[in-house]
Design a protein that fits this description.
The protein has 439 residues and is an alpha/beta fold. It folds into 2 domains: 286 residues, Acetylglutamate kinase-like (Carbamate kinase, 3-Layer(aba) Sandwich), CATH 3.40.1160.10; 145 residues, Aminopeptidase (3-Layer(aba) Sandwich). It contains 15 helices and 23 strands. The strands form 6 sheets. Strands 5-10-2-1-13-15-16-14 form an 8-stranded mixed beta sheet, with helices on both faces. Helix 3 crosses helix 5 and helix 4 packs across helix 5. It starts with a helix and ends with a strand. Bound molecules: coenzyme A. Coenzyme A (COA) binds next to strand 20, helix 13, strand 21 and helix 14.
């Protein structure tokens, strides 16, 4: 690759990432990593270096780790017993869990200590803190099965964790919890992470998982789900595997308790946390309490973003050319779709004088975001906006998108169906087709 290509890629990356650095600073992110990621030397080193790096940027990190493969290896022939999908922790399993928790903890601490030393900065290190932040109770006896040392989270000492975060430490939390009577219990790292995120009112819960995250029925990754969509998926007709059900369950619990965003990411993608947090689209599944994109009326600061989307379409002849000056004058007719503070789509609604008609124009979604329902949502918003202002019919002139509008209830119309002022402006050379929809 040529040096100019590398420079361009870096500049593009920096341009895309810099707003997120500002947005994420000071926020609390709870990250759950499975033991498999810790066992993989390359991924583990990269993951911990990335975590140390984002902590250095001012993001407050709670890192919860799992130890399942480490305990499995330690048990040898003596396997975990499961009842109704939950592990039974006998004395031998517990002894292995305690031993492996210590080993994994030391490994993470040592790698975090080393994570920033190769940077061209002096005196920079990632401070790590662990402690007895989790109070647990036994899961108990169910259907005659005693789950032994398997426990459930009873309480998270959020004040103590926050105090450590305020001091600039990364807080490291094991899947063990302690009871008031001094007993130790083996917990699920996912449940611990969810409880921490909830207790801390974390801004994000990031769950690293060991396989394709949440997919549709064609095994295609679902990039975003609202809380409502995740509920529908969990309780709908589709048969989901246990892992997907578990991921959805803890994500929804966290969201229900006030965590705004849950990210489900594959641990084996190199740099997965950086890619998720500092690029607009991320690489995993985002489950959020509110729709990820918002649609609102445009203001003058949106013009640069609108132009970025429509200029290539104007140059290809798909949209009619608009000068910047014209956009400035007409900006209050525009709606914009926003994702993470960036304009990713626009549409304009122009009412026609005393008629009950309005023109829908300049409907466009940025190329990289097409095909995921953004056009539909903008059209719905434009229709609602028009209907709220007393408009009864909207029309659209199009050269290449006729079928898209027909599939959404528009019907073909003639020039004579247009308001008189629009008829006079009709460009016969462009030969646009006219479509109308009753609202
Ligand atoms: C038309 C446009 C706004 C749709 O946005 P979008 O976010 O991609 O749309 P949605 O995700 O809601 O819908 C995608 C569907 O529309 C279809 N589609 C996209 N462009 C189409 C077109 N020109 N004609 C017919 N269907 C089209 C896609 O194939 C897809 O169909 P599928 O779901 O069966 O696979 C977007 O493609 C765009 O910006 N196009 C360029 C500008 C334009 O033509 N604007 C209209 C000017 S009046």
């Amino acid at each position: 690759m040529k040096k100019t290509d590398i420079d361009n890629r870096f500049l593009q990356w920096f341009h895309e990432a810099s707003p997120y650095i500002q947005t994420h600073r000071g926020k609390i992110f709870v990250v759950r990593t499975p033991g498999e990621a810790i066992n993989n030397p390359d991924i583990c080193e990269q993951l911990l270096r990335n975590i140390a790096g984002i902590s250095h940027l001012g993001i407050r990190i709670v890192l919860v780790y799992g130890i399942r493969p480490q305990v499995d290896a330690c048990l040898g022939e003596h396997k975990y017993k499961y009842h109704k999908g939950l592990p039974v922790t006998d004395d031998h399993v517990m002894a292995c869990a305690e031993q492996q928790t210590g080993i994994v903890r030391l490994k993470i601490e040592s790698q975090l200590s080393n994570a920033l030393v190769n940077l061209p900065l002096t005196g920079v290190s990632a401070r790590v803190c662990s402690g007895n932040f989790i109070t647990a109770r036994p899961y108990g006896i169910h259907d005659g099965t005693d789950y032994g040392h398997t426990g459930v989270v009873r309480k998270v000492d959020a004040t103590a964790v926050r105090h450590q975060l305020d001091m600039g430490s990364i807080v490291l939390i094991s899947p063990l919890g302690y009871s008031a009577s001094g007993e130790t219990f083996k917990l699920s790292s996912g449940d611990v992470a969810e409880a921490c995120a909830t207790a801390l009112s974390a801004d994000k819960l990031i769950i690293l998982t060991d396989r394709v995250s949440i997919c549709d029925s064609h095994r295609k990754l679902l990039r975003q789900l609202t809380e409502h969509e995740a509920h529908k998926l969990l309780h709908g007709q589709r048969k989901l595997d246990d892992k997907t059900r578990w991921l959805l369950r803890i994500s929804l619990q966290a969201i229900d308790m006030g965590v705004h965003r849950v990210h489900i990411l594959r641990w084996d993608i190199p740099g997965v946390i950086l890619q998720e947090l500092f690029t607009r689209d991320g690489v995993g599944t985002l489950i959020s309490s509110e729709p990820y994109d918002t649609i609102r009326t445009a203001h003058i600061d949106d013009i640069a973003g609108i132009l970025q989307i429509i200029e290539p379409l104007e140059n290809s002849g798909m949209l009619v050319k608009r000068q910047r000056r014209q956009l400035e004058i007409e900006i209050n007719h525009f709606l914009v779709a926003i994702r993470d503070d960036a304009v990713i789509g626009c549409a304009a609604v122009y009412p026609y004088g005393t008629t009950d008609m309005a023109e829908l124009a300049c409907l466009a979604i940025a190329r990289t975001y097409q095909g995921s329902g953004g056009g539909n949502r903008l059209l719905d918003a434009a229709q609602r906006h028009a209907a709220n202002t007393g408009i009864k019919r909207i029309f659209v002139l199009t050269t290449q998108t006729a079928h898209w509008f027909k599939e959404r209830g528009f019907t073909a119309a003639k020039i004579d169906d247009l308001p008189i002022t629009k008829r006079k402006l009709y460009n016969y050379q462009r030969k646009s087709r006219i479509f109308v929809k009753e609202l």
